[in-house]
Write a structure and sequence with these properties.
Blueprint lengths: L11 H7 L6 H16 L5 H29 L11 H4 L4 H26 L4 H14 L13 H22 L4 H24 L1 H7 L4 H5 L1 H22 L14 H11 L8 H23 L1
Helix pairs in contact: 2-3, 2-7, 2-8, 2-13, 3-5, 3-6, 3-7, 5-6, 6-7, 7-8, 8-11, 8-13, 11-12, 12-13
C-alpha cells in the first residue's frame, strides 16, 4: 500500500475485480444443491431459493471486500502475486473498501431476514448473524482466525454445511442425511478453492506472519490436501446414490477435476495457480448442478 496513493478513484472494473468474481461459484453452488435437495424432499420454492442466492452472493462479496480491507491495512498484500486488491494496490481508500464489505453484509442481512420470515424458522436469524460475524473475523478484528489456519473450517461450515442445509430447510422445512452428504461435498470443493488460493500465497503469507493452513502444512502436504478435497465429493455422491441413484449424475463432473488436480500435483506455483482457482470454481458449480438434479429426481 503506497502512501498518498488514495487520491485516486477506483474504476468500476477495479471494484468488480476486487469482488473476486471467480470465487462466486462457491456462493451459487450450495444454493443450487440445497434447492435440488429441497425438491427431492417434496418442496422447492423459487422465491426462497432466490433469496438464499442473494444471501450467499452478498456474503461472498462481503468476505472478499473484507479480506481485501483487512489484509491491506495489515500490509499482507504489499507484495501481491494473486488477483488485484483495492486496498493493497492503493486504488481505493481502506474506508471505502470497508464500507463496501459492510454494505454487502447488510444486503445479506436484509435478504436473510426476509427468507427467515417466509420460512418461519426465526432461529435461523442467529445462524445468519453467526455467518456475518464469521465472514468479518476471517481476516478482520484483532485476532483473525484466517491468520491461525482456521479459514478452511469457516468455509466448510458456512459455505458447505450451513449454506446447503439452510437453503434446503428454508424451502422444505427439513433435511435428510443425503442433504448433509451433499453439503459436505460442496463444502469440500469450496475448501479446495481456498486451499489453492493459499497454496499460491504460501511465500508471501509466511513472510507476513499469516499462518494459514497451507503455511502450517507446507507446500507438498497442501497439494495432497487439495487433491483429496477434489476427490471426496465424488465419493460422497456415490454414497448418496445408494438412496438416490440419480445422484450418480454428479460423477459427470469428475473430468473437470483432472486439469486443476494435475496442475496442483504437478507443482504449479504463483500465477500458474490462477487458472486452478477458476477451474475449481467451475468444478464445484458443475458438481452442484448435477448433484442437485440427481437429488431432485
Amino acid at each position: 500500500m503506497t502512501a498518498g496513493s488514495f487520491g485516486r478513484v477506483a474504476t468500476r472494473a477495479q471494484w468488480v475485480s476486487g469482488a473476486r468474481p471467480r470465487t462466486l461459484p462457491a456462493a451459487v453452488s450450495p444454493v443450487v444443491a440445497g434447492t435440488g435437495a429441497a425438491a427431492g424432499l417434496g418442496h422447492a420454492d423459487a422465491v426462497r431459493a432466490l433469496l438464499a442466492l442473494v444471501v450467499a452472493l452478498a456474503l461472498q462479496v462481503g468476505v472478499n471486500y473484507g479480506n481485501d480491507y483487512s489484509d491491506g491495512i495489515r500490509g499482507t498484500d504489499d507484495v501481491r502475486v494473486g488477483p488485484f486488491r483495492l486496498t493493497g494496490s492503493g486504488a481505493a481508500p481502506p474506508r471505502q473498501v470497508r464500507a463496501a464489505a459492510l454494505a454487502a453484509f447488510a444486503v445479506a442481512g436484509v435478504a436473510g431476514l426476509v427468507l427467515v420470515a417466509l420460512s418461519g424458522a426465526w432461529w435461523l436469524a442467529l445462524v445468519g448473524a453467526a455467518c456475518v460475524a464469521a465472514a468479518w473475523f476471517y481476516t478482520g478484528g484483532p485476532r483473525p482466525y484466517g491468520y491461525a489456519g482456521l479459514g478452511e473450517v469457516f468455509v466448510f461450515v458456512f459455505f458447505g454445511l450451513v449454506a446447503v442445509l439452510g437453503t434446503a430447510y428454508t424451502q422444505a422445512g427439513r433435511v435428510s442425511w443425503s442433504t448433509v452428504a451433499a453439503a459436505a461435498g460442496i463444502g469440500a470443493l469450496a475448501c479446495a478453492i481456498l486451499v489453492a488460493n493459499n497454496l499460491r500465497d504460501i511465500p508471501t503469507d509466511a513472510a507476513a506472519g499469516k499462518r494459514t493452513l497451507a503455511v502450517r502444512l507446507g507446500d507438498a502436504a497442501t497439494r495432497r490436501l487439495y487433491a483429496g478435497l477434489c476427490t471426496l465429493p465424488f465419493v460422497l455422491a456415490a454414497v448418496v446414490a445408494v438412496r438416490h441413484p440419480w445422484a450418480l449424475l454428479a460423477l459427470l463432473a469428475l473430468p473437470l477435476a483432472a486439469t486443476p488436480v494435475r496442475a496442483v500435483l504437478g507443482g504449479a506455483k504463483g500465477l500458474e495457480l490462477l487458472p486452478v482457482l477458476r477451474d475449481t470454481g467451475r468444478l464445484e458449480l458443475a458438481f452442484a448442478v448435477l448433484l442437485g438434479i440427481g437429488l431432485a429426481l
